[in-house]
């Protein structure tokens, strides 16, 4: 009972600590790292932590006990059986050699099972996220068939690994049986020749069974530890990836006022082999100014916005906020005074007040309502049966696209930003709601960078920048 309780306590503590540390590190990684990977693959790598933890907290304890018992039993076998002990050790070594000789092939099979399982999970989650598209375009049969094929591949890989485990178990049983027969035969000869008493032989045979069982378990544990290299390699891509640098907290922007934003000689390309999205770009946005970024699709409006808000690192050039380089003041401090409403933004499972306040522990309900009023969503929320306590489903299900956009803008305003970045943030709104929101935000005197295609959104800006035509841009 003490062993079980110790194992449970150790398991629980390491589970909480390791997962919390890994999640914090994962959330601190650079934005491109996460965007380039499938959700299922990241989840699978994260799950590798469970395998490592389980091995260390459960198997290691058993391994230590098995090691002590194996050494003790080996001593007893030597005392009772003499040279007959080497027969038992020889058969045990046969099993060990077989396991280690097939390690590389077994590792490839296990890796194949993990990778195909991750592909299956990615496809499943992707289908759930896009279920409306699947239904609207009647793609159910194709997606189901594709998922079935991927799932069958994952199952086949799992079956292949299980076959190996069964084969190893069968071989171990066969070796143990041969060992037992050989010991009985040789032991009987020693008893007949009076080199061993019958009692000593019976004791030796009992110890032999215990030794074979403990030694086999120890060999299997060694293989488990070697197999951890597979999970270590999968985790290492996350663990050893450089996180965003966080500097000590400090106030960068003045409260209740806009901030100056500049980009100098800015260049960005996705990788060293691709063409720059933009190069030698210079833009100056004065405090409280509203600037609309326009241009044809693919010109780099959203990319520039993400560079400005610190999600993407420029290939070269600088982003300055109030004449301070945002990388030198710390992205954590810079983001404390900014807010973004991006195209891929989403709501999280929870109440409306949780979503607008960013799940703040002691949310200011009055300020939440004020932000909702500025976004012309307060009255609609109050008409809901539970008001601001209305639960929003995962991905924001249960509300319309226009309501979702207004809640996202309200969430951004709740942060009291000095700079507000908006990427097609009002594309689902009618002209009346859009006009109300633009007037409300303009009254706050915060700096706004807007990506837009709609004429009404562009017209609300103080200045318009066409990225397809201009490189050096300063206020007139």
Automatic annotation (TrEMBL):
Listed under GO cellular component are: plasma membrane
The cross-references to Pfam families, in alphabetical order and at most eight, read: ABC_membrane (PF00664), ABC_tran (PF00005)
Residues annotated as transmembrane: 55-77, 83-101, 170-192
What's the superkingdom here?
Bacteria
Keywords, ordered alphabetically: ATP-binding, Membrane, Nucleotide-binding, Transmembrane, Transmembrane helix
Q: Which residue range or ranges hold the ABC transmembrane type-1 domain?
A: 1-227
Its main localization is membrane
Q: Which GO terms describe its molecular function?
A: ABC-type transporter activity; ATP binding; ATP hydrolysis activity; ATPase-coupled lipid transmembrane transporter activity
Q: Where is the ABC transporter domain?
A: 261-476
**What InterPro entries would the database entry show?**
AAA+_ATPase, ABC1_TM_dom, ABC1_TM_sf, ABC_transporter-like_ATP-bd, ABC_transporter-like_CS, P-loop_NTPase, Type_1_exporter
Q: Where in the cell is it found?
A: Cell membrane
As for membrane topology, the entry says: Multi-pass membrane protein
**Protein encoded by which gene:** hlyB_1
User: What's the protein here called?
Assistant: Secretion ATPase
């Amino acid at each position: 009972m003490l062993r079980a309780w110790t194992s449970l306590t150790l398991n629980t503590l390491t589970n909480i600590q390791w997962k919390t540390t890994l999640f914090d590190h994962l959330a601190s990684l650079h934005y491109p790292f996460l965007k380039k990977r499938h959700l299922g693959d990241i989840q699978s790598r994260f799950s590798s932590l469970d395998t490592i933890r389980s091995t260390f907290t459960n198997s290691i304890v058993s391994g230590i006990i098995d090691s002590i018992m194996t050494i003790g039993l080996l001593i007893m076998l030597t005392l009772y059986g003499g040279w007959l002990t080497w027969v038992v050790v020889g058969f045990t070594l046969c099993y060990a050699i077989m396991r280690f000789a097939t390690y590389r092939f077994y590792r490839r099979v296990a890796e194949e099972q993990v990778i195909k399982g991750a592909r299956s999970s990615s496809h499943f989650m992707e289908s759930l996220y896009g279920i409306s598209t699947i239904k609207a375009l009647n793609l159910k049969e194709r997606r189901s068939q594709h998922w079935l094929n991927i799932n069958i591949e994952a199952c086949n890989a799992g079956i292949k690994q299980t076959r190996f485990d069964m084969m190893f178990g069968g071989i171990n049983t066969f070796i143990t049986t041969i060992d037992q027969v050989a010991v009985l035969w040789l032991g009987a000869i020693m008893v007949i020749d009076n080199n061993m008493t019958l009692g000593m032989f019976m004791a030796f045979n009992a110890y032999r069974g215990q030794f074979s069982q403990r030694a086999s378990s120890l060999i299997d544990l060694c293989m488990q530890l070697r197999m951890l290299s597979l999970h270590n390699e999968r985790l290492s891509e996350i663990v050893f990836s450089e996180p965003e640098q966080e500097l000590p907290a400090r106030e960068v922007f003045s409260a209740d006022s806009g901030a100056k934003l500049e980009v100098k000689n800015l260049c960005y390309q996705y990788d060293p082999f691709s063409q720059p999205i933009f190069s030698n770009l210079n833009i100056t946005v004065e405090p409280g100014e509203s600037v609309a970024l326009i241009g044809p699709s693919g010109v780099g409006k959203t990319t520039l916005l993400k560079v400005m808000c610190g999600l993407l690192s420029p290939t070269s050039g600088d982003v300055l906020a109030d004449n301070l380089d945002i990388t030198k003041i710390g992205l954590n401090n810079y983001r404390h005074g900014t807010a973004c409403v991006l195209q891929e933004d989403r709501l999280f499972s929870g109440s409306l007040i949780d979503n607008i306040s960013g799940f703040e522990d002691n949310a200011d309900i009055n300020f939440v309502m004020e932000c909702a009023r500025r976004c012309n969503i307060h009255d609609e929320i109050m008409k809901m049966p539970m008001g601001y306590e209305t639960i929003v489903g995962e991905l924001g299900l249960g509300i319309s696209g226009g309501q979702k956009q207004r809640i996202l803008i309200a969430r951004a305003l709740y942060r009291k930003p000095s700079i507000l970045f908006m990427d097609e943030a009002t594309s689902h709104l009618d002209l009346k709601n859009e006009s109300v929101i633009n007037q409300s935000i303009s009254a706050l005197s915060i700096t706004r960078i807007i990506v837009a295609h709609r004429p009404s959104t562009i017209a609300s800006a103080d200045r318009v920048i066409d990225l397809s035509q201009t490189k050096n841009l300063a206020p007139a």
